[in-house]
Design a protein that fits this description.
- The complex is a heterodimer of chains A (420) and B (255).
- By secondary structure, chain A is mainly α.
- Chain A has 2 domains: 70 residues; 288 residues, no CATH class.
- Chain A has 18 helices and 6 strands.
- Chain B has 255 residues and is an alpha/beta fold.
- Chain B folds into 2 domains: 165 residues, P-loop containing nucleotide triphosphate hydrolases (Rossmann fold, 3-Layer(aba) Sandwich); 81 residues, no CATH class.
- Chain B contains 11 helices and 10 strands.
- Classes of the chains: A mainly alpha (420), B alpha/beta (255).
- The complex binds adenosine-5'-diphosphate and magnesium ion (MG).
Chain lengths: 420, 255
């Protein structure tokens, strides 16, 4: 047992040494026209040595470290909240309060914060959408970003070629993404687990590569720019109205001075609206027969079949509805950015969304909202360490999974009222 | 006059070269408890898998209420009123007991998405009916007090009962139980015995039973089929089977 641990620790340290030597220890440098191999500085070698020591010790003392993690208190949301009966009466007030605060808040903080909050809201939407597929239906999807891309490009293209407005395109984008979800759903119906993950991963890449290469339509790598921003009942948020003769701008209409923060706040408010819609719809879905069927499918597919549940329909509905949420988010994303390119829809985005779902606790909506906030705010806070962002990200995930393997807020089963 | 509910003729299932089921015939009438017995590996579970649509039988006909169901999809067959349990308990472990019961009523509840999203009166009524139906069956199997517990946390005997209740809310006409008494203690077996009889006498359904517990089988079966190495060996009522020399040799003699 202990010798085993010791070998394990030696092995892990050895791997670290090899990786560190290759990645940090030697560097290729151009000196004139020649390439020269440069060794790391002494300071760097000290760091590498320190790192190896940490890996070695942490492997050697995993049990003790795990025990330490177990000692960290795990605040449970349910113990912090008042009891269930009271909660039921309080809930509408809490929700109303939260919405009011969310609406007032942007007027008191900086533009940058509002912008970041808007981004967070996009990730909340994506997380909630993927949660249907991964958390509820138990289908591991590594290419979720494809649907996000479909939504974004649908709006961008419709707006560019046909001049359709954001509000018209929003449902169309969701519908297009749903269609793609449906199309992907068919071939992967029989796949589970790792196989499904690989196919969805491939699908994500196919969409990105398609967008990259179909230059005549999508603009290829240079993307689409100048995508129209959403309007408020036809009022534009630009300095000068662009939409033709009778177009009006927001500040003209209300006799205000032009300020670009109106636009930022407006976008934020739209995002709040969309997130509220998504939360409401998915919350209802989870309590509807279809939501229960998704979970049942995750729990035991064979039992589902024996009870007359059509697994094809259930899987397809999970893919379709999950994808349409991503399409929703995508349309908003392209409207907010005003510019999109395939670069925005790389695999790492899928990974981040999946991390949000896992971190949030696979299935719980509150957990996903919290996780989306953590995952978008933390990288901003760690701006100075931007080189090591991914490293910190990985570290955070490892620590989280050690501390709370069930996610930030583990799913709590709904307790149903039994009185007849 | 009791009618023929299930009529199986010449059911054969081959896996490559292996003949797991070979020309099995079964008849189940309305309000009957029929048992299928045979040594381990005789092909009993495979028969169930063929009847319930998990396998498509290589040969033979399966008539449910004079309608051919061989070749239909599993969920289509269960919607026609033939529902089964499994040799190993298959519950939705992480869902609560009542949720398990509601999932089983998916088909009766499955209104369109819009009515569910806006909780229309019709949707509320359907949901209330499903809830009452679930509560009724949980009472029948004595699990109501555990309604909001996760199914995976129930004791083994309770899980077995929940599995039967979950089948019953789908309103089947023929319930197929695959070794329901396996792993139960004598007390629980007696309760199961009473439950199965109640299903036939009060709820007027038929039960097709695979079971190794001979006292249970002999005590409650209206008719018994014996299969051995996939092929039919004997059939008859409990007394006929007990005294059949072939059966004693092939099956009872083993013990
Ligand atoms: N899917 C399958 N593929 C190959 N062989 C199978 C399959 N299912 C069952 N069998 C074989 O069929 C025979 C009967 O099995 P089974 O029906 O489980 O027996 P019983 O339930 O009577 O104990 C066994 O020899 C088993 O190995
Ligand atoms: Mg068996």
């Amino acid at each position: 047992m202990t010798t085993n641990k010791f070998y394990n620790a030696i092995f892990a340290a050895g791997i670290t040494l090899i990786l560190a030597c290759l990645m940090i220890g030697v560097k290729l440098d151009t000196s004139g026209t020649q390439l020269a191999v440069k060794g790391a500085t002494t300071a760097q070698w000290t760091w590498i040595g320190g790192g190896i020591a940490i890996v070695f010790l942490s492997q050697l003392f995993t049990n003790q470290i795990d025990a330490l993690f177990r000692m960290i208190p795990k605040p449970s949301i349910s113990t912090m909240l008042p009891e269930e009966k009271k909660m039921a009466t309080l809930k509408p007030w809490l929700i109303a309060g939260a919405i009011v605060i969310m609406v007032i808040w942007p007027f008191m903080v900086s533009r940058g914060s509002v912008d970041l909050a808007t981004l967070t809201l996009i990730y909340i939407m994506l997380g909630l959408g993927l949660n249907i597929v991964v958390g509820l239906a138990g289908l591991l999807d590594l290419g979720f970003v494809a649907f996000y891309a479909v939504g974004a490009y649908t709006y961008a293209l419709l707006s560019q070629y046909f001049g359709l407005s954001f509000w018209v395109c929003l449902p169309i984008s969701a519908g297009m993404a749903a269609l793609f979800g449906f199309i992907l759903g068919f071939p992967v119906l029989r796949l589970r687990g790792d196989y499904l993950a690989i196919v969805t991963l491939g699908f994500g890449e196919i969409i990105r590569i398609l967008l990259n290469n179909w230059t005549e339509v999508t603009g290829g790598p240079s993307g689409i720019s100048g995508i129209a921003k959403p309007t408020l009942f036809g009022l534009e948020f630009t300095r000068k109205a662009k939409g033709g003769e009778d177009a009006m701008t927001f500040h003209d209409y209300f006799n205000l001075d032009y300020s670009s923060s109106y636009k930022v706040i407006f976008l934020y408010l739209i995002a709040i609206l969309l997130v509220c819609i998504v939360i409401y719809v998915i919350n209802r879905l989870m309590r509807m027969p279809i939501g229960r069927a998704w979970e049942a499918l995750r729990e035991d597919e064979i039992a589902c079949r024996s009870l007359g549940l059509n697994r094809t329909a259930i899987k397809l509905s999970a893919f379709t509805l999950g994808a349409s949420t991503a399409g929703f988010a995508g349309a908003f994303f392209s409207a907010r950015q005003g510019f999109i390119s395939p670069e925005s829809f790389i695999f790492i985005e899928s990974a981040i969304i999946l991390a949000i779902v896992v971190l949030g606790g696979m299935g719980s909506q509150m957990g996903i909202i919290l996780a989306a906030i953590v995952m978008t705010i933390l990288p901003e806070l760690a701006r100075e360490f931007s080189e090591y962002r991914m490293l910190l990200f990985g570290l955070l995930m490892v620590l989280m999974m050690r501390w709370r393997p069930d996610g930030l807020i583990p799913t709590k089963r709904p307790q149903l009222e039994l009185k007849q | 006059m009791s009618q023929l509910l299930l009529d199986v003729n010449g059911l054969t299932m081959r896996f490559g070269g292996l003949v797991a089921v070979d020309g099995v015939n079964l008849k189940v009438k309305n309000r009957q408890i029929v048992s299928v017995i045979g040594p381990n590996g005789a092909g009993k579970t495979t028969v169930f898998n063929c009847l319930s649509g998990f396998y498509i039988p290589t040969e033979g006909s399966v008539m449910l209420k004079n309608e051919q169901i061989a070749g239909l999809k599993d969920y289509q067959i269960s919607r026609k009123g033939l529902v089964r349990t499994f040799q190993h308990v298959r519950l939705f472990q992480k869902m609560t007991v009542i949720e398990n019961m509601l999932v089983a009523q998916h088909r009766h509840l499955n209104t369109n998405l819009i009515s569910g999203l806006f909780k229309t009166p019709n949707y509320r009524r359907l949901e209330k009916d499903a809830m009452n139906h679930a509560i009724h069956w949980l009472e029948e199997v004595d699990l109501l007090e555990f309604a909001n517990r996760e199914a995976g946390n129930l004791s083994y005997g309770q899980q077995r009962r929940l599995e039967i209740a979950r089948c019953m809310v789908t309103q089947p006409e023929l319930l197929m139980l695959d070794e329901p008494a396996a792993g139960l203690n004598p007390n629980e077996t007696k309760e199961l015995d009473e439950l199965i009889i109640k299903l036939r006498d009060e709820h007027e359904i038929s039960v097709l039973l695979i079971e190794h517990d001979m006292s249970l089988v002999m005590g409650i079966s209206d008719h018994i089929y014996v299969i051995s190495q996939g092929a039919p060996l004997a059939q008859g009522n409990a007394d006929e089977i007990k005294n059949n020399p072939d059966v004693i040799k092939a099956y009872l003699g083993e013990e």
